[in-house]
Amino acid sequence: DIQMTQSPSALSASVGDRVTITCRASESIAYSRLAWYQQKPGKAPRLLIHDASTLESGVPLRFSGSGSGTEFTLTISGLQPDDFATYYCQCYHINKAFGQGTKVEIK
Amino acid sequence: EVQLVESGGDLVQPGGSLRLSCATSGFTFSDVWMSWVRQAPGKGLEWVANIRQDGGLKGYLASVEGRFTISRDNAKKSVFLQMNSLRAEDTAVYYCATDLPNGYFLSWGQGTLVTVSS
Asked: From CA B58, how far away is CA A92, in angstroms rounded?
């Protein structure tokens, strides 16, 4: 099974900052079957991006995804107060596995 | 509006059983795969099980295979998770989610808490 590793586990950033989160797979993910989710405390996750770079409807354009093979990134261009949350990547090729999460905190 | 509402979570002793339900509305239930995803307290997300539109194909996390059974009732637009031989490590919030297309999770319920403890 494919295993996913996110880095960093946590980061501190200020409003307006550009933030990048990396997700690495233990083996190549075919067809870029990689999704990103945002989760706030006590809430269900929210799908942001699927197929590595396709923005889900209603998700602000400051969120973007890129990558292929074993390395993928989520970028938030111009962090907003509503973006402080935990972010998870998830592969859906061969098996469904989540990364361990990246908590984005206010600096 | 798409809605998924889980129920059935409770405190149960190790070795016990529990049946979770997820009632849905706002989309064509019989057209989509459905999954259960769990989150232990303070931990990350973990996919548990999924089921094809017709119920004829199911997948499970290795650690729950043989103990958990996923099922669905398309007439009632509901998906279920029968959990037997529960262990402390099964303690988590359990979410149901649409699994599109047998891949990523688009819509989620609010979750139901299962606590396994003596």
From this structure: 15
Tell me the per-residue pLDDT of A71-96, one tens digit each, with 9 for 90 and over: 999 999 999 999 999 999 999 988 89
Is B35 an interface residue toward A (CB < 8 Å)? yes
Which are the contacts of A98, defined by CB distance < 8 A and separation ≥ 6? A4, A88, A89, A90, B44, B45, B46, B47
Q: Quick check: A85 and A104 in contact, CB under 8 A? A: yes
Which of B46, B106, B109 lies nearest to residue A98, judging by beta carbons? B46
**Is residue A18 less than 8 Å (CB to CB) from chain B?**
no
Residue B101 has pLDDT above 80, yes or no: no
Q: How confident is the model at residue A80, as a pLDDT?
A: 96
3-state secondary structure chain A: CCCEEEECCEEEECCCCEEEEEEEEEEEEHHHCEEEEEECCCCCCEEEEECCCEECCCCCCCEEEEEEEEEEEEEEECCCHHHCCEEEEEEEECEEEECCCEEEEEC
pLDDT of residue B102: 66
DSSP state of B55: S
